[in-house]
Amino acid sequence: MKTDKKARMLVSESILRQLGTLEEIDLSPIHEECMGSDDLLAELITLYEKNALEFIGIGKICLQTTDFYQMGLAAHKMKAGLAMMQTYSLHSIVVQIENCCKNDRDAKHLQFLFDCFTVEYPLVKTAIDDAFKKLQKQ
User: Fold this and answer.
1) For each successive 10 residues of the chain (138 residues), what is the average pLDDT?
2) How far apart are CA 56 and CA 75, in angstroms?
3) If DSSP codes are grouped into helix, strand and coil, which group holds residue 90?
4) What would the DSSP string read from start to end of 21-81?
5) Burial letters for 42-79: b for 16+ Cβ neighbours within 10 Å, e otherwise?
6) Is 1 helix (H, G, I), strand (E, B) or coil?
7) At CA 69, angle to CA 14 and CA 124, rounded to 5?
8) How far, in Å, CA of 90 to CA of 111, rounded?
9) How far apart are CA 97 and CA 76, in angstroms?
10) How buried is 137 (Cβ within 10 angstroms: 0-12 exposed, 13-18 middle, 19+ buried)?
């Protein structure tokens, strides 16, 4: 079973890389909304990361219990933060997760989407960290 999950993760990562879903993150509009405060932007990034990790934790539990309702709520909660940080690749995945929970209720497809999120998130986190460092140098 672990081999199957690892294989799915590798396929998911391969698909995401081929599609080029990882866009460059531009934090300057958010930095402007933070009135140029690096500390406030850093706090928003920390909150974003905590929410993403919470979503991953809740997602794992919901997938084990096939709780589509709670998974849908968790996905809905994530959408605003993902949109605010302009992480559209993750936002797209979360919208699909929410739709799957509301409409399809297909556990295998939901697992695939969740795996896509867990593969994409570290890539996006690195991009955000790099963009923040770049912004601080300016």
Assistant:
1) 51 51 80 92 96 97 96 95 91 96 94 96 94 88
2) 10
3) helix
4) --PPP--HHHHHHTTT-HHHHHHHHHHHHHHHHHHHHHHHHHHHHT-HHHHHHHHHHHHHH
5) eebbeebbebbeebeebbeebbeeeebeebbebbeebe
6) coil
7) 30
8) 15
9) 9
10) exposed
